[in-house]
Each structure stands twice: as C-alpha cells, then as structure tokens.
Amino acid sequence: MFARLLWKLLHASRGRLVVAMVALVSGAAVISALLNLQLDIERKLTQEFRTLGANLVISRAQTVQALSQAAESPALIDEREVLSQVERNRTHEVVAAAPFLYIVARVKAKPLIVAGTWLDEAIKLAPTWKIAGGQVASRGDLTSCLAGRNVAQQLSLTPGSKLELNYLGRTARMTVAGIVDAGAAEDNQLLVNLPVTQALAGLNGQIGMVQLSVNGTPKTIEAFAKKLAAALPVLEVRPIRQVAEAEGALLGRIRLLILSMVLLILVLTGLCVLATMAALAMERREDVGLMKALGGSISRIVGLFLAEVGVLGAVGGLVGCLAGVALSHWMGQRVFGAAISPRWEIFPLTIALMVAAALAGALPLRRLGNVKPAVIFRGE
Amino acid sequence: MPTLVQVEGLRKEFGNVRALDGVSFNVEEGEWIAIMGPSGSGKTTLINILGGLDTPTGGQAMVDGTDVARLNEAGLTRYRAEKIGFIFQQFHLVPYLTALENVMLAQYFHSTTDEKEALQALARVGLADRVTHLPAQLSGGEQQRVAVARALINHPKLVLADEPTGNLDEANQETVINLLRELHKEGHTILMVTHDPALGCMADRRIELAHGRLVHQAATVAQRR
C-alpha cells in the first residue's frame, strides 16, 4: 500500500512536482558535470603541465662542499649508475627521462652552449618545441644536431648546414637536422646526442644531470622523487618547484571553485524544491487532516511525503547524472579539446546529494505535523 | 448492555466561547444515538472530542474504558485508528485515490491492508462495480457509501456520523439511512449528529444540545416500539 500511495501522491501532484523535478535534474546535471570535471581535471591538467617540460631533476647534491668543488670541476654523476636506477624505478607515470651533459664549445671561435642529451627522449620532455626541418630520431646518431632558434640566427644555420664544434682541442663535425623554437633556454643552445659532448669533454660515462617528466599531481611527483632519492642516496632528486607549485596552486583553486559551485547549486536546488514543497504542503493540509482522522500517525504520513521527495531526488539525480555526463563531455571538448571520460562513481554521490537537497527542501512538510483534523474539517 | 461511552461534565472552550458546558450522558453498546440541536450548539465539537479529533477543556469522556481527555497525540492517533469509524457530511475521501484505495487507506493506518476485505466492504455497500472509480467519478451517495465502508473496515467500537445525509439527495439519503439501520441491527454503536428530525427518530435515543448544554434526552419512538 505504501508504494501504491507513493505512486498516487506523485501522480496527483505531478504538475507541481515537475518544477521541483526540473530543478533537481538541472542541479544534478551541473553538479555531476562539475564533479566529473573535478575528478578528471587533475589528469588533464597534469597532462597540460607536462608540455611545460621536465618537472624532476637528478643532479649532484648542491652542498657547500660540492659547490666549492664545482668551481674547479663540474659536479658530474655516473651515467650508468643513475640511469639504471631511473629505469629500475620507472613507472607508467614517467613520460620521459633524459641525461644531460652541458659544455661550452666554440663554433667559428664563438662560444656556444652545447647540450648533450638523448635527442629522441629530449623531444618527449618538451613536446611544445617547434622544430623546423628534421628531427634526430636516434640517440646513436652522432653527426646530427638541433640548433636553437637564436643560435641558428647568429650562425646563419639552416637545416642541412654543417658546423664544427671545438672543445679542449677536440672537434666534432655536425650537420644541422632542424631548428628548434623552444621559447626557452634551448633557443640559445646546440642540441646533440650525449656521446658527442662526452667525447668532446673526455667525460665518457659521465653526465651533469637527468631531467624527467613525470605525470601526476604534485603529491605523486613528490612521492616518485622520494622513491628515487632513496635509491640514489648520494644524489639530489628534486621536483622543479615552479612547475609543481603552479600546478598545485591551480589545482587547488579549481577544486575550490568547483566545490563552491557545487555547494551553491545544491542550495539553489534546495530552495527551488522548498518553494514547491511549501505550496504542496498548503495543498495537502486537507489530505493530512483526513489521514490523521483515520488514525495515521504523523511519522507515517510525513514519512510518506518524504519518501515522495526522496524518490524525486533520486530520479532527478539519476536523470541529471546522465545529462551531466553529456555536459562534462561537452565541457571537456571546449576547455581541454578532449572528451572527459565519464566517472561512474559520481552517480551515487550526485544522487545522494540530490536526495539530501530534496529532503532539505521538503522542510515545509514538517508543518503538516501540526495540522489538526478538527480544524481542517471546520474549514479553517 | 454494558456502557461504551461515559461522558461526565465535558467542557470545551474556544477562547471566550464555551462550545460545551458540562455535558454528561452515557451510551450503551449497540445503541444508536441521535445528537440534535441548532447550529452552534456543540454537536460537532462533542463528536470531535469523542472521536479523538479534539481535546476537551475539562471533564471526562470515557470510550470503551479509555479516557480520551487524557490521551496524548500518539495515544489519540491509535485510539482513532482502532476504536473509531468516522462518517462525515462532506464525505472526506482522498480525491486521487480510488474507492478501493480510500477504504484500504484506513486499513493501512490501522495495521495491514487486505484488498479482499476492502472489496467485500465495498460490495456490502453496493459498490462492487465502482471500486476503481475516483471520488470525482462517483455520485454523492456513492461517495458516502465509500465513507461508510471505510468507517467500518477496521471494525470500530464506535461509529461517529456527522450529518451523514446532509449532502445527499432524497434517493441517496434513503440508501445511507438503510445502511445505518443495517449497522445498528448488526450491533454497531452509532453516535449520529443530525438536523433531520426524521432521521433522529430512527435512533434509539435522542440527545438535544443547546448553547453547549445537554437540554434534553429521551428514547425515540423507534426505541419505544
């Protein structure tokens, strides 16, 4: 009989309840879209941040003693030791890891910073690089190089140009494969594969640092850095603070914004339901008076009405969630240029929030508890 | 016959207005009482108090051993569900429930619903073919018969009828009067408020109120016969 009464109540007041239902569906749609966005935004944003370049650096510890030694000789690290540890601890979150050895060589008697690295991996570290001409696809290619935009301009280099690097009496002949527009320090560098700088400097098996690009939140990156630091106790593994902090601050602000909006929408939805229920409570005074006269306890009567509101909240929440998936898909396309994948775990959360908002909006029904049957029958 | 209703010095005040002023009378089990009097004499107030819809300002109203005046809200609710069957002048059916569901509503608030029993109750008042109709699809007489079926479905100790024929045409009045007669024959105790002297004469006893006081009570012709 409970289900029968519930259905009759919903059916009898459908005109008025449609207003509450529209509010609940709209609220649930926006909330589920925002929550979906909130859950997916960390992944999307960290992907976006990875385009900014490396966010983790492994180098010799920058202690006072090390710094004084560095003045005399560069603080070098053993390539095999560090890279083997990086590989051992590598997870799917590591997008790229490349060793670097910098030297200042001379080209036509002009000093030039030459970065020795794995060029195939370095490109993954900085996916925003624009390269005119060709790339250096293999780290074993010891005759091709990439010239930074400014270097190319100063030395009049174009793809295919040849140049000779001189360092400590050693030379290396290179062909420019492409011109790099990085918008960063690389614009002033010549990029070659690591063995080239190692051979020029006579530092085989030695590198200056390893740069890594790691996906994930600042916390994930910090955790990965700690893991690596434990495996490389004599080296310093540090996240690049500006990137991590910018990412953390942005994520925090977006999270706060989304949660504030969710709260606001919940309040507005609750208020809309409240207005509908206040009118409904007035309409139902006579029914409640009669039900009380027939021996209906107030808990049973109000329970019936609350169940009705609960059903509204649940149905509104479910329909809204489905609409929210479509909305978040659209928002993902507009904001990130990629669809945001639906997160099914937000369904129960959104439905629960909608039921809560609907029940909070049903507060006027509490007034029905004060209805006196005799007063109602007198027509007052 | 044992006494079912015992009213002693019953008073009810609405602000400065004294609706009942020391009313006392008894009703035996199986009796049909007609409460009569002009408008504003306190008839409906008396019925409301005996039905647990209102509380008295003073005095005692014992129904089947329960002092209605001493019951709290929860006690009054159980009392109404278990001991009282109401028949109102305005029928007071839930408009969005069918005839059957209106009867079952009383069962639902009493204990558990029994559709078969509700169907039998409607068949008994001659509405077997109208069970799925909404109140708006029924005539006044049919609505009142649904109300009678609803009033009896939980086998109440006391049936309270407030102007049960007041809103009916002559043909439907006759139907409802016949139903009340049947109920009386079956041994139901009925307290009926009416303005209609003809209907009042069908009861066993007539209690007359004026200005909240019991001014006259006497066995009717029907009882003397």
Outline:
The complex is a heterodimer of chains A (380) and B (225). Chain A is of the alpha+beta class and 380 residues long.
- Which CATH first-tier class of chain B would you pick? Alpha Beta
CATH topology of chain B: Rossmann fold
Mind telling me the C-alpha Rg of chain A?
33 Å
Proportion of beta-strand residues of chain B: 25-35%
Fourth CATH level, the homologous superfamily of chain B: P-loop containing nucleotide triphosphate hydrolases
Characterize the overall form of chain A: rod-shaped
What is the domain tally of chain A?
2
CATH class call of the largest domain in chain A: Mainly Beta
Main beta sheet of chain A, described? 10 strands, mixed
Distance between the termini of chain B: 18 Å
Rg of Cα set of chain B: 17 Å
CATH architecture annotation name of the largest domain in chain A? Beta Barrel
Biggest β-sheet of chain B, characterized? 6 strands, mixed
Mean pLDDT of chain A: 83
Q: How much beta of chain A, percentage-wise?
A: 15-25%
Query: Structural class, from secondary structure content of chain A?
Result: alpha+beta
Helix content of chain A: 55-70%
Mean model confidence by pLDDT of chain B: 88
Descriptive labels:
A: alpha+beta, 10-stranded mixed sheet, two-stranded antiparallel ribbon, 13 helices, rod-shaped, B: 225 residues, alpha/beta, Rossmann fold, 8 helices, 36% helix, globular
